[in-house]
Amino acid sequence: MPTGAWRWAALGFVLLALAAAGLAIAAPQVAGLAGYALLVGIALVAVLFLFAVWPRMGRATQDALRVAEAAGKANIAWAITGEDGAVLDCNPVYRRMAGVGEQESPPPPELALSGEPSAAVLYRLSRDAAEGRAREETFVVVPGLEIVAAVRPLPDRQAAWWFTPRLAASSSPQPVLARAAAAPAPAVTAPVPAAIAPIQNIGDLFRDAPMGVAFADAKGVVSDANAALAKFFGASGPLVGKDFGSLVETSDRAQVMALIARTASGETGSKAVELRGAKSANGEERMAELFASPMPDGKAILYLVDVSEQKALETKFAQSQKMQAVGQLAGGVAHDFNNLLTVIIGNCEFLLMRHQAGDPSFKEINEVHQNALRAAALVSQLLAFSRKQTMQPKVLALGDVVGELAQMLRRLVGEGITLNVEREPDLWAVHADEAQLGNAIINLVVNARDAMPSGGTVTIRTSNQSVNARALGTAVMPAGDYVRIEVTDTGTGMSKEIQSKIFDPFFTTKPVGQGTGLGLATVYGIVKQSGGFIDVESELGRGTAFNIYLPRRMIEASDAAPVEMAQPAARDVTGQDTILLVEDEEAVRAFAARALRMRGYNVLEAGGGEEALEIVKSDGVKIDLIITDVVMPNMDGPTMVRHVKQLKPDLPVIFMSGYAEEAFRRNDQNSEDIHFLPKPFGLKQLAAKVKEVLAGHPTGG
């Protein structure tokens, strides 16, 4: 569409036509017939030119608006994200899908849906969006329903996201696109009378109704109300003559009064509104839905349905799904960081070999190395939260574990704080990783210490508990036998708002620089990965209690100490073996290959599973060991190893990955020739693992 100077030119033509018209009218004898003809020509050109350049909504804009409107009606969610991934604009369907209201900031697409399938897909899509690539993937959200998620690059490093629900291989009707993988509770609809007629015997009709019922005029003045409604609002006396608006919270008052006024005027079918009532005896917020139907005398019947329990369950479910989604995202990010840290740590160690203590560059290189190791520790905590760290569970006597920790914990809490340990005798056994469980208890004690700047008491209790199924935090704990670890303090306590966020990664109430916000997130991940549950009870000024519940482990024959088997004589490993190194990240592959060659090994490199398989199939190539990444494009590590094992079943393999060992152990990789090297690793860890595997294995072929 022409703009700027073109529109000025059009305006000039119009003025020229007006001037010619003025001349023709003022001096017709001078203009003559030719002047009139010229005037008409100039006027027509001016009008056509002005019409052509006049600003108006283009067809592309109209089409875009139609598509956006149609998307909403077709239950398709869309969002526009900026360079940093934040949502710049979205439609109401996207907000419903993400579980946020009109006034709330919508989450980025990678956190809009919950669950493992969606988190993995959306993380990949977000990476492509950041790199300006178009991508489309499909994943199942509930049985019978799948979502097609697509991302398209836009100018200025923005991206357009589309979420299209469609039926999977099922004939069930398509549900409304909304957050959660569970079916929502049936919606409560207001009773609408077939015809408005006078109501007789009002007292007998609604006095004992289980829901709140009231009658009010257009101004909200209550003419009658039953006991259920008065109880919800915590009213001590009758409500007759009171303003209904005065009963509700200030923030809910406007929409409630608007509903009453519309209904009293005869309007039917109004949507229910949510409102808050008096807090329950235990301090929990109560919620209700208010419906209204008109009466013939200019009044409205109000129906109040208490939905407090439903809303509490929805909140717990949403929090649980959020934690799961954030955990999946954290696990993916941690995996990528482990690749980067492997390269940084490895190359720092190369430099430190050339620039030893006393060298002018030693201090700076060592500083980078030490901070890379600190970053690796933080990534390990992220993996703990996302439940993707390597665990080594065994049958534990918790009383002994806590007893061994007690002395160290007393030094940790320092002076002014008393540490009490109360152990119930004959504790049941549990199945967990001793080091990780100890780390969880230490984190809880440190958290308790920091909550008591003026001193106090920390108590660790262990006990056997047989419990019925119940809601615990954001999860439902099945009935059964558990061993409980309780860590309590007499500190400052926490508000309800803070309690709802304490297990979120990077959430902290400490000043900047005094905490990473990963301590309690790590505890949450360790407990969940151990099959247990955790909840918190706290009150401002009264202290805090964390309770960990670990399932009882019945002692089985397989839990006995393994019998020592005769080990084959270790052969001398001096670097004469040939190693096939498979890694799609070039920087990681280059570091590992250089490190192995420094030890004297012959290294064959492959950038993926297919290339590695071709090398294994090559004639005349003797391979003694395969070192491979787990996650690779096209053919991943476990798939490649399964093909190799068909050709050379005795060939040992070392998997290296930023994920947990269990991630591929679950994929039937249980051979004694399968070993694991977690990322990030340095020169010593790599060399030691290779030597360990080759020393106990006969030469390959």
Model description:
By secondary structure, the chain is an alpha+beta fold. It has six domains: 5-53; 74-167, PAS domain (Beta-Lactamase, 2-Layer Sandwich); 208-306, PAS domain (Beta-Lactamase), CATH 3.30.450; 312-385, Helix Hairpins (Orthogonal Bundle); 394-555, Heat Shock Protein 90 (2-Layer Sandwich), CATH 3.30.565.10; 578-695, Response regulator (Rossmann fold, 3-Layer(aba) Sandwich). Helices cover 40% and strands 22% of the residues. The chain contains 19 helices and 24 strands. Strands 2-1-5-4-3 form a five-stranded antiparallel beta sheet, with helices on both faces. A five-stranded antiparallel beta sheet has the order 7-6-10-9-8, sandwiched between helices. Strand 22 (625-629), helix 17 and strand 23 (653-657) form a beta-alpha-beta unit. The chain is flat and about 110 Å long. It starts with a helix and ends in a 6-residue tail after the last helix.
